[in-house]
Structures are given as structure tokens and as C-alpha cells.
Fold:
Amino acid sequence: MASGRKDFLSQHAPENYVAGLGRGATGFTTRSDLGPAREGPTPEQIQAALQQRARTLGAPEPTAYGGSREKGGKEEEKEEDDERFQDPDNETGLFAYGQFDQEDDEADRVYREVDEKMDRRRKARRLVTPPLRSRQSVHGPSPVVWTEYRLESFATYREIREQQEREDYERQNPKIQQQFADVKRTLAAVSEEDWANLPEVGDLTGKNRRQKQNLRQRFYAVPDSVIAGARDSAQFDTTIAEDGTQTEASEEDGSMTNFADIGAARDKVLKVRLDQAALGSSADTASGSATNIDPKGYLTSLTQSELKAGEVEVGDIKRVRVLLESVTKTNPKHAPGWIALARLEELAGRIVTARNIIAKGCELCPKSEDAWLENIRVNEGHNAKVIAANAIKNNDRSTRLWTEAMKLETDTRAKKNVLRQAILHIPQSVQIWKEAVNLEEDPADARLLLAKAVEMIPLSVELWLALARLETPENAQKVLNAARKAVPASHEIWIAAARLQEQMGTFERVNVMRRAIQSLVRENAMLKREEWIAEAERCEEEGAILTCGAIIRETLGWGLDEDDDRKDVWMDDAKSSIARGKYETARAIYAYALRVFVNRRSIWLAAADLERHHGSKEALWQVLEKAVEACPQSEEIWLQLAKEKWQAGEVDDARRVLGRAFNQNPNNEDIWLAAVKLEADANQTDQARELLATARREAGTDRVWIKSVAFERQLGNIDDALDLVNQGLQLYPKADKLWMMKGQIYEAQNKFPQAREAYGTGTRACSKSIALWLLASRLEEKAGAVVRARSVLDRARLAVPKSAELWTESVRVERRANNLAQAKVLMARALQEVPTSGLLWSESIWHLEPRAQRKARSLEAIKKVDNDPILFITVARIFWGERRLEKAMTWFEKAIVADSDYGDGWAWYYKFLMQHGTEEKRSDVISKCMSTEPKHGEVWQSIAKDPAHAHKSTEDVLKLVAETVN
Structure:
């Protein structure tokens, strides 16, 4: 049999083999070596090689390089074997291993292979060895047999020992199947009847129980098919209740089913979500939505939490009682522990025990005010005065205990006696003096007490101010001067002095606030600018208007440098004061800002707006007159002044204002057009036409030409209007409004070809004009060419992508053609293109969704569209249809606040109030709409810009739009 083992010369060298090491050769390198030198043998390898060479030669083993340990070898061996120098925790000799290396691993592997080979040989021998009893003689086993038996026994000793260890381990650590082996064997005797009678095993983990609980918590809307199936499963008698609701009674159990309630319950979740959407998280009540916390809901939840706190379980009380008793025993001088334990017993209904506990607490903690106050509260009406007396004996300088003792008295004289005793013990307590003064009914007695109080406590600003309020103006001035000397760092005293000067009518004589600021700066007691504004608002609230203005005038610029953005800061301060209803403070802020920034148009406009909404007409005129003097180049301020004069009926004054505006701003188109409007409203047609002609010559813009055409159309001069349109288009071919006017003139004359040509030419010249595309489409639809209308809108959407108005018109064309399927397809595409358009969502909800799905779709739309008035109007109309009038009104107001320039929102709200509002509310809406003067809205613009309604007021247009919207 050929062996796979290689011959000696073909085998790999042993690990760490170094040629010539046995004869003392070592590796070395020279400078001529190109590569790195090979590492030489370690000292241990050299020592082992030398010992091997010595044994081969029969020489004694060396102890070092070339040395011998023949002498002293026994002593060294004895020294190594000496037990005195051995560490019992460190083995020596054969077992004193150092760090293992590859040679040790190689040796272990060789020994392991030898052991495995010997085991295989022993196993093979046992297989071929016959049994012992077959090889015995009559007189016992022969010596040969016995020898073989012993060899076999020695060979199997290791297996027997390993088997025994394995059995011992399994006996000490049995498996589960081994533990129940006997029980499993007995199952063979169980009969089929016993198997059938075995009980069901319980769910010990609680998994199924949790799943059932989760299933119970899920609520599903019951489909109408299920209700109909339940109705048809048995015989029901349909009746009409007295209130008009339809009910069905079952003949089996007599139960009643109210399907109206079922339908209402199905919409409850959607109503709640819409209500939550109405309460915006970021807006405030001034903007038409609620604050972050619903006051009613918060109070309701607070009441529920209090009820839950009152329904404490007995087990909880016992556990807390044990803890608090441990606290009081561990630290009996800790008053809060006694108070908590007494309140726990009071909560548990054991009032006597609570009194005993708090009494013991007061005994152990006699210096604790809280413990005595709790004792007085628990024993109120029952020895409370005695307890208060004992409390004061232990704490005679406690203001709270003296005040509580005073409150326990019912007679005024007794109260005064208690407070007098308190003053004797605590003469420096401001609270005691205040209580004593409040008990005095005679102002003279109160004045005497306060005089004594400020003498005892000269640093109390509150007492000084109270004394000044009780004195006459002359004496009050003396009191305030004394107070100012006693407390020079108090700004309250200076403000009180300024208010006293205003009350006496000598405010203009002495600038008290300027002296106050100088004094406070010297004392380093100057307040922040925001705190001074708060003080000014407090003075305004109390009626001190002059003091309010003086505070703002002297302190508004405090802490601000010239390089700071002071204008924006002051504008924000004024807006904040207006939002808080402090209009005088805002006026003072604007006045100060205008003294610093005289020529800032934005500040003048803000001041005028304040007077327009919260001031008088004369104050507004005065502000605007000062504004045009400061900003003569601002046509907006001139126009506002002229408009205010004209609305007040002062037409001649308005003309003079416009004349002054012409002198300051020649050839300004806004002033020209304002003059034209003024003359047209005054029925001065010829003057208006001349002004327009002059404006076209001197300030010729497309807007002037558009106003000229509109003016002639309003007068009914169609030919002149058409002539002006053609002239204007030659000058301004990109003016889309001129093309629209030309098409509308031909359309009004039923000249559809000419109108189609005008709209077509206009769309080619002004391809981005959405209104022009809409007019062209509606002309085709009006002419009965629905296909051409679709084509126009398709081209329009290509020219103006992502236009909600064009998509909405496309849907409406299909809807008016009774093609609802195509309308829904177009709506789906439109919502993909413009998902945040309130106009598209409103069209989809109101015209393409069934009534039952409108609320769900509106909720989905609110989540995707942010603050859109058209969508808010749709939600309000849904609530209106459900007769939820308060919710409808909330959403109508929310729409108006979101965009006050949207005229259709005002019209819908007015229409709602015409049915469900009061006359006062309708008048308020009309006045607000007239002050706002909305300009936009789909229906609003179509009516307001109609030449037939040219001279109608905002109120008239509002009523016309309210009658038109549907």
C-alpha cells in the first residue's frame, strides 16, 4: 500500500528551524545586504540547541553560552525544589508555562493526534476480542485471558469515566422531557372519554385577553347594507314618532332603533375634527380663531381630574398612609410630613384623626407657620381661635398667623384689637398695616394710621402712595416729596407725582417725568423700555392720558442707539399696544417716532390708519394734513386726504387737495385718475372727460387708456369706447385689459366673430393672461361650441401651467355639459397639479362629491390647504346646511379674517346673516366691509366692474353679490 507521506527531503522544515544552529551558527547581515536581515534565534532556542549538542556529545549541560552547571547543580535543583520559595498559587516545574508559542501549539496537536489514534486502536481491539466467558476454563480464566481482560479494562477506563461524568451531569441537570417521562408514559392508559373531558387550558400570558381588549376599543362605521340586512332579518314595524324621527320596533324583543341617531353618530368624528381645525393653533382670538388652550375644554378636563382625585381607592390611601407615617416617625420635626398625613386622613373622611395628627404635629413643630395654619383650617369653627392664640404664642412675629387670627374674628372691633396687638409685635409688617387701614371706615382715621405706618416703615412705597391718595392735592404733593426723599429709586412715586400734576391742571408747568428720568438715572434705577410702555398703558387704563404721553415721550428711546433699527422697533411697539386696546399709548409712540423720522411715509400711514379705525374724523384730517406737508411727494397720502374729504361731503375741499397734489406731483397718473373719479362721482361728466384727455396727452399710460375706455362704457358711448380701445391697443398691444374690453364690447353687441377675433388676438399677444383665456372659453361656450371651449382651455393650460382658475373652468365646462365622469377625471388631474388650491377643493366638495362625503373631503382639504378663504366659506356652508349656525358663523368670520379683500366671503357672510343674524350684526358687517373695500372675488369682480354698476357704493355691491352667489 503506497503511503501519501513525502520523503524526508521533500518535507517542509520545522517551525523556527535555523540551519547550523546545533553547531553554534547564527544569522547575520552586512551592509551589502539589500533586504532586511533575518531575525536570529532567541536565547531560549540557543540554550535548547546547546543542551541537545551536549547530550549528543555526553558532556554536562551548559548553564550559559559555553558554561556548565555540573558544579552546584544539586544545590540549584534543591534551591528550585525548596518549598519556602514556591508560590502555592503558581505552579512550577512541568506546569510552569510561560507564554505559549507556535511550538507549544504544534506539540499539543501531536499529542492530541497520538491520543486519538490510540483510542481508535483500543476500540478496534475490543471489537475483535471475543467475550471473556467464552474463553474461560473450568478452573477459571487462564493467565492469557486474564491479561487480555485487563488490557481491555484499561482501554475502556476512559470511556467508562467519561460516561459516568455525563450520567452524573444529566442526573443533576435533567431536561424537561426527562422530568415528565413517567407522566408521559401514563398517558397511554388515558381513555378516549377522559381525553374528551379534558378542560381547555387558560391563556396564562394574557396575549389573547389583550387582543380582545384591543378589538373592543376599535369602532367601525356601520354600513347601510348591514343596517338594511338587520332590518330584513326579522319583522319590524315602521312608525313615525311624534318628533318626526323614523323608528323601527322589533317584534321579538321590542327594542327601538332610531336611524336618525345612527346617521348622526356616523358623522360625529368628522364634526369633531372640523371643530379642531377651526381652532387654529397659531392664531389668536383677534384673528378669528382660538388661542392655544380652549378655556372651556381646559376647565372641563380640570373638573374631571378633580373628580378622579376625589375618587381615591382605599388601597392607595393605605399605601400612602404607611409612607407618611414612616416619614413622621423618622423625622418628627418635619412639619410638611404631618400636614400631608393630616390632609390624607381628611381626604379619607377621618376628620377627627386629621385634627389629632395636625395637633401632634404642631406640638412637635411649634415654630412652623404652615403646621399652625393647617391646624386652624382643619379646626375652623371648632376651637380655631384657641389654636390661633397658641400659634401666636409660639410665633408672635408671624404675619400670616396674625392675619389668620384677625380673619377668625367676626366683630370689627375685635379685628382691630388683634391687628393693634400685631402691630405692637411686628411694627415693620406692611401687610399688617394695610389690613389695619382697610378696616378703618373713616378716611381721617385711615390717614392717621398711614402717617404712623410711613413713619415706622419709610421704605414702603405702597404705604406712601396710599397716604397720598387720602390727602388733599396740596398735602399729597408734600407727601410725595417726602416719599421721593425717603425712596429716591422708586419710579412709582414719580409717576404718582406726574398724575397729581395732571389732576391739579399744572401738568404743562413742570415736566415731572423729565426730572424723574434724570433722578432715576442717577440712582441707577432706570426701568427697561418695555416696562415703561407697560406703565404708560397702566396710566392710560386709569385715565391719566397726559402722564401716559409724557412717559412715552421721555422713555421710548431709552436703550436704543441711532444705528439700531429704531423705526421698526417703535412700529412693533405701537402695533402691540393697539392689539391690547391701548390706543393713546400707540398715538404717543407714533408721535414720538414721527418727531424722529419726519419724512417716513410708512409711519404717517400707520398713524392715519390708527385714527381712521380708533379715532375721530378731525384727528384723521389733522394727521393727513401734517403727513402731506412732511411727505409732499407721496401721492398715496394725498389721495387718502382727498378721499376722506370727499367721503365727508367736502367735494370742494377734495378738489383743492387734488390741486395741491398736482402742483407737488405733476403728471402723476394716480392723481389724474383720482380727479377723474371725483368729477365722475360728482356727475361732472365733461370735466371728467377733459381730465382724461389731458391725462392721455401728459401722462399717457395703459392704465389711463383703460380708465378712459371704462368711463365711456359707463356713459354708454360704445363707439367712442371702441375707438379708444383701438387707439390704446396700437400704443400698448400687451395690455390684456384693453383686449378684454374690446372683446366684451363686441360680445355685448352679440358680434361673436369679432369678439372671438379680439380674444384670439389678445391670447396670442398676452398668453399669460388667465382672465383673457377664461373670457375666450366662455364666449365659445356661450355660442354653443363646447368642443372649442375645451380646446381653448387646453391651450390655456399649456400656456399657463398649474393655474387653479383654468383647471376649475375646465371642470365647470364638463359639469355644465352634464359630463360628470369627465369632470371628475379632470378634477383628479387638477388636484394632482395644484394640490393646495382652495378653489379646486371647494369646486370638488360642493359639486362633485355626494352630500355624505362633503365633510370628510373638507377635512382632507383643510389638512392640505393652509388658510384659504374659499375653502373656509365651503366649510361654513356645510355647517349652514346642517343648521349648526354657530359653527357656520365661526367659519365665515375665519374666512373674512384670512382675506378681508375677498369680496365673495363678505357676500356669503351677509347672505347668512340675512337669514340667521340680527340687524345689529348685519349693520356691523356692512360697516366693516365698507371700511375694507374689497376688490377681489369671482362674483364680486363680475358685478363691481359691470358698467351698469359703475356708481354703486360698496354696500350696494355687497347686497347684489349676496343675491347672486349660490
About this structure: The first helix runs from residue 43 to 57. The two ends are 110 Å apart (CA to CA). The chain is about 65% helix and 0% strand. The domain at 310-395 is CATH 1.25.40.10 (Serine Threonine Protein Phosphatase 5, Tetratricopeptide repeat).
